[in-house]
Amino acid sequence: MTTTASPAWRALERAAGWISDLRLAIVLLLVIALASGVGTAIPQKESVAFYHQRYDPSPWLGLVHGEGILGLELDHVYSSRWFLGLLAWLGLSLILCSIRRQWPALRASLRWIDYRSPRQLSKLAVAETRPAADPLAALQGLELRLKARGWQVNPQEGRLAARRGLLGRVGPLLVHAGLVVLMVGAAWGALAGQRLERFLAPGRDLELLDRQGQTQVTVALDDFAIQRDPAGRPEQFSSRLRMIRPGVDGAPAVSQEASISVNHPLRYRGMTLYQADWALAAIDLQLGRSPVLQLPLRSFPELGEQVWGLVLPTRPDGSEPVLLSLTSEQGPVQVFGPDGDLLAQLVPGGEAVEVRGLPLRVTAVLPASGILLKKDPGVPLVYAGFAIALLGGGLSLVATRQLWAVAEPASGRLHVAGLCNRNLTGFASELPGLLDEAA
Predict the structure, then answer these.
(1) How far, in Å, CA of 276 to CA of 327, rounded?
(2) Scanning 264, 308, 329, 380, which has the fewest C-beta atoms within 10 Å of its C-beta?
(3) Which residues pair with 354 in a beta bridge?
(4) Phi and psi dihedrals of 348, rounded to 5?
């Protein structure tokens, strides 16, 4: 009695076959790689105003304005619905491919195939027949030689089957499993990860709170330094930090000193702190005989990419303002009037310069460290996925060889044949040597 699969089941099988198709997986990988490139080209997770300000006057690729970038979720590519959907699609494709192809292939390779007649062996890729005075003794000698070389041998009466490199069959499964674990880690990090970027001036700190609103850790900046080349361009930024954890049950706080710089982040209790940027936070200014005042600086993107300054009135009633601007903590501080004329240049730590009857002296400029904090719970899975995929890739290079031999005492012959999934030519040239040594 035969049963016929239902139309729904056949449709499900066709869908599974289409999803697990290798060509589709390659296309998905290319699309994901292209999307990752877009996420690298477009700044991620900035404010809405940032994208309108940057891409409305000059659309990305000449096509996509700020509203389009926000609508297509290109401002957060790696956590967007369509990108996570691509990852899920590729993961499902790899899982189905493993279930439908790799796992059955592995199970089939674990089963011993018993070829009983020389005619069966003659149909294999590599086959050879040798005359032997005692074919059974030659068969036994071949068995001993194969075992000495690390082959698994399954002897039967008047014949044998042998195999080597079975681990190579596990490689593709591990590659698929590693990629799936990697994508799960990437998706988890995109959905549950946290990202915070702040500018801190030396002597100031940043409190990080947990979900209950309790202080989890305090990041205090003790010192920040900018290393510049002879032309004055920044080469390296470094921050000296203190990580302060509140004590438990009345215990004193625990403090740990650490340093970060560009390309040398700090990993602390599941967080990673990066030295991301720098800025100018404040200027120490003396007006006439007044005490030194520390005034905050703000960026002026309309004047340049790295220009900071402040508007300062020169009269007690707040009239006749001037603009103080600078591009480096080393100065000089340029003073401009309302009409844009350069009135003076002030050197930090230098002498006072009179501007519209008011002596101005800059004692110091306070730089700020741009610290990027990331907490990504998916990182261990990403690393584990890479390790599993690399292990699988290495095992996939192991050639799986299978060999069968049948002794024919009546005709005084020993028939040997084999298969190999890699370097079949090398296996064919190795086989005569095995037979000569076993004779």
Answers:
(1) 18
(2) 264
(3) 359
(4) -55, 125
Residue 430, token pair as written in the block: 């190795």
| Lowest mean per-residue pLDDT among 23-37, 155-169, 246-260, 282-296 | 246-260
Q: Which residues, at least 6 apart from 58, have a Cβ–Cβ distance to it below 8 Å?
A: none
Distance CA 207, CA 407 (A): 80
Q: Which two tokens stand for residue 217?
A: 């850790």
What is the rounded distance in angstroms from the CA atom of residue 74 to the CA atom of residue 313?
A: 43
CB 404 within 8 A of CB 153: no
Long-range CB pairs of 131-138 (<8 Å, 24+ gap) are: 131/412, 131/413, 131/414, 132/407, 132/412, 132/413, 132/414, 132/439, 133/412, 134/409, 135/407, 135/408, 135/409, 135/412, 135/413, 135/414, 136/407, 136/409, 138/407, 138/414, 138/438, 138/439
CA distances to 85, 126, 150, 153 from 416, in Å: 52, 8, 18, 14
Runs of H (alpha helix) within 170-318: 171-192
User: Which pLDDT score, from 0 to 100, does residue 4 have?
Assistant: 57
Rounded Cα distance, 213 and 246, in Å: 13
Q: How many CB atoms lie within 10 A of CB 292?
A: 12
Evaluate if residue 223 carries a pLDDT over 70: yes
* List of long-range contacts for 51-59, beta carbons under 8 Å, 24+ apart: 51/75
DSSP 32-91: HHHHHHHHHHSPPS--HHHHHHHHTTS-BTTTB-HHHHHHTTGGGGGGSHHHHHHHHHHH
Torsion sign over Cα 277, 282, 285, 287: positive
pLDDT digits (tens, 9 = 90+) for 384-393: 999 999 999 9
For residue 85 the two structure tokens come to 């959907």
Write out pLDDT tens, residues 132-161: 888 899 899 889 989 988 899 999 999 999
| N-terminal to C-terminal alpha carbon distance within the chain | 53
CB 118 within 8 A of CB 158: no
Neighbours of 319 (CB within 10 A): 8
